[in-house]
Amino acid sequence: MANGTAAPLSGVKVLDLSRFIAGPLCAQILADFGAEVVKVERPNGEDSRHHGPYHQGESIYMFLYHRNKYDASLDTRHPEALGILERLIEWADVVVENYRPGTIEKMGIGYERMKELNPDIILVSISGFGQTGPDSRRALFDAISQASSGLMSMTGEPDGKPTLSGTYIADYTTGYQGAIGALMAILHRERTGEGQLVDVASFDTMFSALGVRLMSQLMLGQDMPRSGSRDLLTAPVNVYEAADGPIYIQAGTASLFPKLCAVMERPDLAGDPRFATVEGRMAHQEFLEGEIGAWAAERTTGDIAAVLDEVGVPYAKVASVAEVAASPQIAARGMIVEAEHPELGTIRMPGNPVKMEKTPSTVRKAPPRVGEDNAYVYQEILGMSAEDLDRLRESGAI
């Protein structure tokens, strides 16, 4: 830690019973800032471990959400599993789970039982539709969240089909919200001694992120159609094809539009009363985009970037994943981090986007293999003997 300061979550103990993305990401965020996180998964690995692509036989999917964690294998259907889980719940400050609502109750470790074992426990329950409501028991993956929440209906070209986001945006956003909920619950417990249930739903998270389209419906009763790469509220804003590839230009405000016209050497556009207001530019955006597109097509993205930088018009070359990963900005921000795995070698992963001056996130441990830390979890944390560990292993419990 910077200046010798302890990590902000140092001493916080987290039991991660989650799978896939949202729950594991939530727990990893806590781990990045110093929490001791124990991930429990079945002996043959959670489903995500069986999704390619693979690096030396290990799914790279797992490298994204499990750094800084200790991994303990456990067959939750084994006769001894419930007792082990109960002891881990007694040890933990926070439990993260993302089973379908009702599942942990069937396992014998629902929230009420957790409180009996550990009265001030914090349970972060991440689910598709939440713990309440008529859809609470429905199964959900990221794409279902995008479709059901309204996000997919907003995404894509106006004359095309609704489209998924290019990444698991619902899972990521829900994982972030889960971490926020956990942190608020930890702060509340420090002040009052009370634990609580944190109920985070992917559906709720995506619904809350619909922005002005949602407000247009709630306040005006109006639906706003899909707009492709255009901005919803200002123009001209779109992606244009330069001589060497696409570039996105944002010149929709009253101050930016004249600056773009100046670098294009088109004072006629800047002075045309049709384009003097946002409403006017929105009404004529196809014409304006045609003029800007013709100008951009005769120049490279580098040439366009140079003149737009001079006048302060926002732009971005539409970068590939390879290009952005290799960019100086990513390097300067520390957004690619590395960890040394004892068997797999160097693992490269996206860094934590929260940059804290005094207590930055750290990478202390590579994403573990299944059961890699069984000895630590079962012997050091739970106080079992080596013989106990051998017995559990032989019985198939771990």
From TrEMBL:
<protein>
    <submittedName>
        <fullName>CoA transferase</fullName>
    </submittedName>
</protein>
<dbReference type="InterPro" id="IPR050483">
    <property type="entry name" value="CoA-transferase_III_domain"/>
</dbReference>
<dbReference type="InterPro" id="IPR023606">
    <property type="entry name" value="CoA-Trfase_III_dom_1_sf"/>
</dbReference>
<dbReference type="InterPro" id="IPR003673">
    <property type="entry name" value="CoA-Trfase_fam_III"/>
</dbReference>
<dbReference type="InterPro" id="IPR044855">
    <property type="entry name" value="CoA-Trfase_III_dom3_sf"/>
</dbReference>
<dbReference type="GO" id="GO:0016740">
    <property type="term" value="F:transferase activity"/>
</dbReference>
<feature type="region of interest" description="Disordered">
    <location>
        <begin position="346"/>
        <end position="368"/>
    </location>
</feature>
<keyword id="KW-0808">Transferase</keyword>
<dbReference type="Pfam" id="PF02515">
    <property type="entry name" value="CoA_transf_3"/>
</dbReference>
